[in-house]
Protein 1
Amino acid sequence: MPEEALWPPWTETWSLHTVIQGGQYFDALLKAMNRRYGEPKGIEEFCLKGQVMNYESARGMFEAYGRNKYWATGITAWKYDAAWPASPTWQFVDWYLLAGGAYYGAKKACESLHVQYSYDDHSIVVVNERSQGYEGLTVTARVFNLDMGEKYARTATVSVGPDGVTRAFVIEWPEGLSRTHFLLLTLTDSEGQKVSENFYWLSTVPDIPGRKGYTPERIFWIEPASTADFTDLALLPPVEVRARSVFEGDGETRRARVTVSNPSNSLAFFIHLAIRKGPGGAEVAPTYWEDNYFSLLPGEERTVSAEFAAEDLEGAAPVVAVDGWNVRAQELR
């Protein structure tokens, strides 16, 4: 897409790269983004907020099914990947084989042993997709305000059967929560090893369904009675994370191990890692990350791994790029 057509929507080029109804088909998407995360000022901000919104949506969809199995009889996601170079569309992996926020949100939700939050009744639930049961699991929930002040903590020991679901407890929300706040869930096994971690951004403003329908031109519209307000995420201070990387393998498959730490007193929100074809180069696609679009509390450190095909470097030396919602961009050379 030419530079002059990138922003604002809906230019003819945007419309060409959407669906046959044209860009206006996604007006409901833009309005939902504006209500939930604040109106983007440019294409980069639009893409970032889109990834956050997609992560939140895809994770919620699969977690809802996991908690409600099997009186919920199934789930269908359409579509996994974009059929051509689209601007806005529904996808987990785009035309260029880049996995987006929806992919990693769904990947998180589909962990085989998983701890999750229920948006409807505020319960904390352990979902087990494995053929064996577990005893002595420890569930911990911690709630933080926007300034990272801890407002709530609770721990419970639970068991879960094979292919089972266990409700651990219901969060009792404390007084004095900031409009945007955060929930960190951890699940450890009977040996004290962490087996699942899940991080949510939540709002004191509830999501309440309202009216929805289609125009005569078959354009979808929605008017919720209330929408969660995450606009205060814009107030998160900039964070410069520390990162180091190691590349392994000299055959057809290369591997990267990246360690990221947050030395600040603020949240490092929605950290994104990418392998690039040399400094400032295009992203290597596909790259299979163990996890991506994750957040780090103050003082936290995390190591994630990735695999990619050596031939996709096209002769360049691999470089790890790190950025995020409030994370200063850097490359590890």
Note: The chain has three domains: 10-110+206-235, 118-204, 238-332.
Protein 2
Amino acid sequence: MAGPAGLRRSAFTQRLTRYMPLTPGERDAIERLERRERRVAAGTRVITEGAENNALYIVQHGWLHSATSLKSGSRQITGFHYAGDLVGISSIAWSIAAATLTTIEDCILFEIAKEELGRVFAAQPRLAGLLYAIAAAEGVAANDRLTSVGRMGADTRLATLLLDMLARLRASAGGVIDSFELPLTQTDIGDAAGLTKVHVNRTLRSMEERGWIERHGKRLRIKDERKLSGEVGFVDRYSEVATDWLPPPPNVPQGVLETA
């Protein structure tokens, strides 16, 4: 979305200010991280599992997924990534990528060297703390999805996955209410939920018949989010992230702090 000066609004900044007002210095630091733009076509491998990697990416537009290869030759999709995400954190502790990152649709990314992020952490410790808190919340959400795959039936697995997508999209896209465009194949969904393509097809139809969802082309609507969340035990890990433990910004009057 364009701002008053005709510049594109940063999806990353928009997401972060949902949780904490940013100082001008923190916003400037994010702007410096977003200098190297890449436009990447759908189906492109951005990072390859097992290959040397020294980059992270901020997602400005589009969907991606992270996946790991299994010995059977199949894959397990471990996470989906959307506008406002910082992607590649799982590989930050090593020089070798822990997962393959692939674009699901045409994407706009900002490429960041790990060293650049390290400099931002040194100069903007509050920003570093916020990113740590968000990464922790995403880790808990990933554990929730893992539990659903390992211990729940197909309907509950897919419902948990779709509710997680809705909650995550809402965290950065304020216009998302109860529906969203789903640019995934049934194979993609199955690889994330631990189901075959045929089982995904059958389960989605079952969810429609039970009144959980409705579909119009690629658009999917969750009909009663509160009721469905209660039935499957879904907890929204993205709506709030605690930041009260962070120190106040030094020498910045409260009125100067900026929100989205």
Note: Residues 77 and 192 are 5 Å apart (CA to CA).
Protein 3
Amino acid sequence: MLQELPETFTNNYNFEGIAALSNCSGSLMRFENSKDTDKAMILTNGHCLETGFPKPGQFVSNQPSSRQFTLFDANDQEAGTVRASRILYSSMTRTDITLYELNVTYAQILTSYNVRPFTLVSAHPTAGTNIQVISGYWNRGYTCTIEAFAHELHEEGYIWQDSVRYSRPGCEVIGGTSGSPVVNADGSRTIVAINNTINEDNEQCTMNNPCEVDEKGAISYHQGYGYAEQTYLIYSCLNKDNQFDLSVKDCQLLH
């Protein structure tokens, strides 16, 4: 997981729908079939949860929350604040996500702040895709490509599956960028993954130093290798009404 580091950045990115949390970054997000009248959602990392890291093998769902988020407009100006009503889901096992439901709809946010959400892509991302990692906490972005996918990514006791590895140079992310959306750079305003970690100190499988483990159990690690986690898995847990529901058959998130 990413630790906070003091640093100053500039940016040349479209920040509409990017969110800042007290300790992380996030995004205003909708599903492909969401309606404007649906309650809006904020996506960030599991390790950004306000109650602390979920333990390995643990998940949180349908819990009340009043967490506040700052939304940005396209010019990286603070458009306003929104508040959660509940934690739809949070876990750091298999992937690293927290999904919040807000107490306002997408239509209300558009009317109040003129801010549109990103759309979460329902398909597995593709190697070679040009991407941007946009951080509301630091008000800056990074540009690179999806280099490859790690079979497993291990960090301390956490195991993430099919992690996105960033190309280098470009996405040398730091603490506070945790939870930033990994956005398709084609201008479609679509999220393909969620930023979560980088090997900071060239250590093997320790906190802030993830290592890759392949299908045969071989371990590799490289200082400066950054990663994101899968988000398309969320779609496997949507019911016929397009609502998040862990009881859906074949839901791929830990539950």
Note: The longest strand covers residues 140-155.
Protein 4
Amino acid sequence: MKVALDALGGDLAPAEPVKGALLAAEEFGVDVILVGPTAVIEQELAKYPANNRISIVEAPDEIKMAEDEVVKAVRSKPRASINVAMKLVKDGVADAMVSAGNTGAVMASAFFVLGRIPGIERPALSTLIPFNAGRVFLLDAGANADCRPSHLLQFAKMGAAYSREVVGVSNPRVALLNTGEESGKGNETIAEAYELLSQSDLNFIGNIEGQNVHKGLCDVVVSDGFTGNVALKVGEGMADYILQQVRSVIRSSILYAPAAMLLKPALRRALKSLQYEEYGGGNLLGVNGVVVIAHGRSDAIAIKNALRVANASAASDLMVKMREIFAQPSASSSAAGR
């Protein structure tokens, strides 16, 4: 597998993407194509030992993190690093692409360059959320603020396919994020989506409330992008808060120092699971290629793990299965007219 990495993407580019690429090449054996200005990338690579799994493709232009009109920028800058990396996937030079750049620009480029998988109305941004025994897959995490019931059904099908092909869950349990577990809960869209999911061939287990998402009661959580993004960011905020509180309490008294030293390995393992860097990035599911969007403030560890996620997705049968699922009349027949 070869993964194209947008070397200009993110608040810490190009230093952290380049370092993350080297870490992924060394730890996971990922072949990484760094996309960006060659001279800039070579300057960063010169700080580290040479690695034959790293190559460079020239892309002189950049779509900035704070770009106002992302669609216009994507259309007007064909040689921007995001577009060039995306085209490498389309042309089969790369098997996947990763960017920590402007999320809107990455999504727009994926739509324009790769297009949607036939039968999918709306691509969805996804992410893995930790719980004690593993991870649950959440989508949509922010690509679609307003959704129809048919979109939520398609998100569920895409999420179940990812859970099977990439995570390795044989019969993924799918749940609908809602304000209560009862079937009548939620607004009209959620209620209709509940009926569609109930009638589908998915292993739909019903509604799930926010406080239960991290308990491992299901494998896939389906939501509209607005709700999913809010839930995700609240979770990230709470994780940061917990980390700060643990550090603050330990530092509050010299009496805690000896205990903290003894517990340090256990605390490090526990706190590691709360850090977004360990999860790398989210797949943009529904476009005709493997695209992973990393957090804008991704450091080298986050980039390394985003490359791992992209490599695993590309190495699986995910894209083949997605095309098969949505080529079937049953995948979209329920959505007709909704």
Note: Residues 225-251 form the longest helix (27 residues).
